[in-house]
Amino acid sequence: MKLLTKTEEILLLAIWKLNDEAYGVKVREKVMDMTGKLFTYGNLYCTLDQLTGKGFVMKYKGEPTPERGGRAKTFYKLSEKGLTALQEAFEINQSVWDGVSLYSFTRN
Amino acid sequence: MFIRKISKPPFLAKIILRLSARTDDELSLIGDFEEEYNRRSDEDGAFYAWIWYWLNTLLSVPKFLRYSLYRSTAMLRNYIKIALRNISRHKGFSLINIFGLSVGMACCMVIFLYVVSELNYDKHHDGYERIFRIGEHRIVPVGEFRSPLVSLAVAPAMQRDFPQIEYIASIVHLSNGLVAKDELQLYEDRIFYAGQSLFNIFKVDFLYGDPENTLERPLTAVITRQMAEKYFGEVNALGKIIQIKDPRFLRRGQSEPEPVDYEITGIIEDLPSNTHFKFDIIASDAVYRGTKYTEEWDNHSAYTYVKLRQGVDPSEFEEQIRMLAYKYYGDALNRFGQKRYYFIQAVTDIHFHSNLQGASLQTLQGELEPPGNLMYIYVYSAVGFLILLIGCMNFMNLSNARSIYRAKEVGLRKVVGAKRSQLIRQFLGESLIITLLSLAAGIFLVQALLPLFNQMAGTNLQFEGLLQPSVLFAVAGLVVFVGIFAGGYPAFVLTAFKPNIMLKGSVGAGNRGSMILKILVLGQFVISIFFTITTVTVYQQLNFMKGQKLGFEKNCKLVIPFRGNRNIRKNIENLKNEFFEYSGVTDVTVSSTVPGRFVMTNWVRFPRETAFENRTVNFLACDDNFFEVFRIETIAGRPFQQGRNDKNDSFVINESAAKILGFTSPHEAVGKRITEAFSQHEKTIVGVTRDFHFRGMQNVVEPLVMEYSGLSFLYNNLSLTLIPDKLNDTVNIVKTKWEEIYPGIPYEGFFLDEDFDMQYRTEGQVAEILGLISILGLIIACLGLFGVTSFIVRQKYREIGIRKVLGATVIHIMKLISAEFIILVIIAIIISVPAAYYVMNKWLQEFAYRISPGITTFGIAGFVALSLSAFTVNIKVLRAAQFDPVESIRHE
Q1: Which residue of B has its CA nearest to A42?
Q2: pLDDT single digits (tens) B220-237
Q3: Number of domains chain A contains
Q4: For residue B676, which phi and psi values (nearest 5 degrees)?
Q5: How large is the C-alpha radius of gyration of chain B?
Q6: Is residue A103 part of a domain?
């Protein structure tokens, strides 16, 4: 299987962490919390669309609320495939970073 | 809540967001924006929220755009995949489609090439819109004519008087020029004298030599690649010597022109076929530049071209040069009672719009090459379009027939959520792919067809011509047109149906679908039957003209032109005797021309009640044996006879001449005296011949006056009657003998019958091209019919089975299915017969002697179409009718 891109990996993690609360605004905030970087909505939705297309996440519609101008939230949830992909990513990350500490890169 | 209500999110930004974000969740996205906007508006105020909204919109747009681009190419790849799958699943139909379309497109492309080349005649010269030819309108006492041949004095005078002229060039044709290089000695018909300025006006590509300085020195020449290869065996002939004998430059007392050595100072690429001025050799005009020739106003030997300076108004220029002759030559013109005016012709108009006369009796024709016919451009364009139409109709028809099956596909796609626009795109995409495949096949076909077409139409079209921008553009347009036209039906009609109806499978089999199917089959057959009728008509007319009684005998006549060679002319009686003594030669005659070749025109004057009148007639000089050799019948008086005073004092005329000279019967003409206008010789009419066709059957027999002239310079052809059984032997003997007696004069003998039929070459070309087109059209139409029948058969599979069970025979079933197609073909015949009749009648009007298309014409065409279509339909039906009914009824 192809490796996840970093963006995909971060988004999948954010969705997983948000559990039942994973929709656009929340995902974006979570990513901000996790990485300190703000995704544009363009980046966010396009990547989510690709993840859906690849079958890593599933989506379902929530109830429309007035503060959203009457528009429903689209919630995202990891699929079985998405969970496996994260598992794999974790393992890869571990083995890639194995034997490396934060101080390895400092030039003294 | 209240505050939120009034601070609405920026409308424009929302629109931008919606338009750019083409994901499935665009509404949730807007919702997200709105949610965050409202929160910020509550916390930080409406203005800050407004800024936030805009900023985030603009930041998101680039990514969305890139993403939608990525997605659409993914769609495209998907379409292509599905299209290719569809093509390979239905191999037979795809093959019929691609074959029909590619043949149609190949024909179209060849015709594009032809039309573009014809319409670009003489447009390759730089600044062609400033290039003009000077013409001369002469009014002499006996008549008037417009000729492109002007005096040699015109060019120097114009250059002196008119600063508007940037370049001016006179070119003089060298007729009957002999070119010699060592042993090789040949007549070349396309030698001209000209100066350096020629290349400033006409664009040529120099391969060797200095383009700026080729014809300045006397006795230099520029030749084409072809000539260099012919005489020197290599292209680079720079500095080599070629000999030219010009019969005009004859010293006093000489009978044979001296060979003059010309040094080759330039070799140019062969000229394109679409220029009216085609030459092989240009010899420097320095031989006569500055001599008395260039000051004589009473010769008419030069084609003169000018290139005007930028910004000069041509019509103003024409007005200024009109009276030029009066400035230099006015006295003489008045004295001779002549008028002479100059006019100009745009160089690009010459091919289609100019058909000027020669300047005198001796010049063969005025134009450098026979003018083109604009009508054939229209005809060929229409033909190309129509054959493409047949191919398109095939496509539409098969898509339509297949729609019965594809309706289910479309229905299913719709059920699982395909939008109509997506389906339209898919169908159009599929048809574009088929079109592109056909284009690729068509290009290969063009490569194969082009030599054939060139041979048929006598053109020189190059395959590389397809790369011209105008042709490329047209081909691109063709692909889009065909793709949309042919794929339009399934794309727009099929996708409009409701899925539940489609899934039931009743679409396409319904009335509307089969109606369209029938109309298309009808259309195809109307067009192809139309072509067949026209082809048959053209062939019938051609055969009619070739088989018509000409009034003279053309078989077994060997004609040897001697091009006015003075050595031969001086001893004409000798010449005749030389060949008369062979056993294979039964008769011999000399004449100015032979039937089928150019005949001079002249005027005769004859007395009427009160005054003299002039009539234009054709004029021919011949000896006393002419009527015997060609078996021309005399209906009044007698032919020329030896031993009488005929050589100085008689004319023989034909029936038409007797008529226009005002005699009520041929007998009345005998004994009357008429005057030939140029030499002012008055002679007696001694005989009248029956009209014979000295020109092709396109023209009526014109008045002809024949004289037994004592002037040897009029004679140009020796004609021999050969004994039929040893034709070839005799020709060989004559040829050997000729080369023995006249070593300096190339032997150019030809058979009169073959030469005469060359006049029908154009009609022959049209017949061949139309024949090819109608065969192709019929093949495509029948292939389409085959495809449609097999769909119908598949649809009626069970019906056939049940009928067979109930006792129907194979013949019954064949009748059942083929009947409706046969009726269609009959209707097509009924429609196309009047159309073809109308068009062909128009075409036939050009011929003086013509057939009228009748029952045989339409019978042949109808029979061909009917039997072909019946055959096609029944191959398929026959197979279906022989199936085991058990199988077909079980078939689902």
Answers
A1: B60
A2: 999 999 999 999 988 898
A3: 1
A4: -80, 130
A5: 38
A6: no
